[in-house]
Specification:
single chain, about 375 residues, alpha/beta, 8-stranded mixed beta sheet, lipid droplet, hydrolase
């Protein structure tokens, strides 16, 4: 049972938009420090993230992602990294729940290519949402996971000389906003993709998941059942997953599922984190902060997402006038996006009214 279904179909069919080469942007990371960069254009292409039959107009991405284990304040952390030769900014991607960052490898590689190889990209996993139980069964809630990301920024990204952009998916968007509030001097801009910002009390699906996550017995039983599949040989669990989930999952996503999610410690942490999410997100979002930083925060909503429903989009529009916000329409209604990420969002939001987190520089 995947709580947020972060990436099984890392999107349905999506359209990649090209950058506008004539624009120049000023990235302001700190009040007294200004960064300037040009966004290059790249070929248009259509991708089904997580889908083995991706339709490519341009050639396949040549991005080389590296998997690395990092020790962050004593916690083993899984990273997916792509290093640009001459980066003009650095993207830190924070996934949804489950926080298995290798789910997003295809997305991050395509993102790197579509940004013209001008950004170094780091995807960071959650504590104990991992292949091995490095933490000996300990459970980590929302606050601890946010602290972990802040510690990583202060430890690993302290000396970068380019703007830091946070890209968060689902609860990763909430984490990104909280990080921005706590260390604003470190963060330039935020992309919130299908943001889970508040509990939807009218959602039956959220209500069911909330009850499951609050029950220790139910959580233990579900985690044990999930873990049984993890004991199978990798080829067997991959075969069962592919039969059960269909052909929309890539080999990368299937491997992430079988090697990391089908573990007792991971599933138990997924449910525990979900419980603490519901406890925290029953509160109203910090609208005042979003209004203050509206030129540095962009939101993307889907037209059918129970974690980021359209009525929440409407509330953001109401509470944050002139917010940078857009709705991603499902081009194929027969495909279930499953809270996945359309890779078009970065380019699309850059193009929105020529003002996403950035200020155009007049020649």
């Amino acid at each position: 049972m995947l709580i947020h279904l972060s990436s099984p179909t890392l999107s349905s069919s999506v359209r990649i938009l090209t950058f506008t080469p004539s624009l120049r942007y000023s990235f302001i990371n700190q009040p007294l420090q200004t960064y300037r960069t040009a966004i290059p254009s790249t070929p248009t292409r259509v991708v089904q993230m997580g889908h083995e039959k991706s339709q490519l107009v341009s050639q396949k991405s040549h991005a080389i992602s590296n998997f690395r284990l990092c020790n962050v304040s004593g916690r083993k952390t899984e990273l997916v990294e792509i290093h640009a030769t001459n980066p003009r900014f650095h993207v830190l991607f924070i996934p949804g729940n489950p926080g298995v960052v290798s789910f997003y490898t295809d997305f991050l590689e395509s993102l790197y290519e579509q940004m013209g190889e001008t950004a170094s990209i780091t995807g960071i996993g959650y504590i104990s949402h991992s292949e091995k139980d490095w933490e000996d069964g300990r459970l980590f809630g929302l606050k601890e996971q946010i602290d972990h990301k802040i510690n990583f920024i202060q430890q690993e990204l302290q000396t970068i000389e380019v703007p830091l952009i946070l890209v968060g998916h689902s609860i990763g968007s909430f984490m990104s906003l909280d990080i921005y509030k706590r260390i604003p001097e470190k963060v330039a801009y935020i992309f919130a993709l299908y943001p889970f910002l508040a509990v939807d009390t009218k959602s039956q699906q959220q209500s069911i998941i909330k009850k499951i996550s609050r029950s220790q017995l139910t959580s233990n039983v579900i985690s044990a059942i999930v873990a049984l599949f993890g004991f199978l040989p990798i080829w067997a669990s991959r075969f069962i997953a592919k039969i059960s989930l269909g052909k929309s999952w890539s080999t990368t996503a299937l491997d992430a599922l079988c090697t990391r999610v089908l573990k007792y410690h991971t599933m138990r942490n997924v449910l525990y984190l979900t419980m603490t999410e519901f406890e925290e997100l029953i509160k109203a979002p910090d609208w005042e902060f979003m209004r203050e930083k509206r030129n540095r925060i962009a939101f993307l909503y889907g037209d059918d997402d129970h974690w980021a429903p359209l009525h929440m989009h409407d509330e953001v529009v109401k509470q944050v006038p002139n917010a940078i916000i857009e709705v991603e329409k499902e081009e194929n209604p027969n495909l279930n996006r499953n809270h996945g990420i359309p890779i078009s969002i970065i380019n699309k939001l850059y193009a929105m009214h020529k003002k996403l987190y950035v200020f155009e520089i007049q020649e």
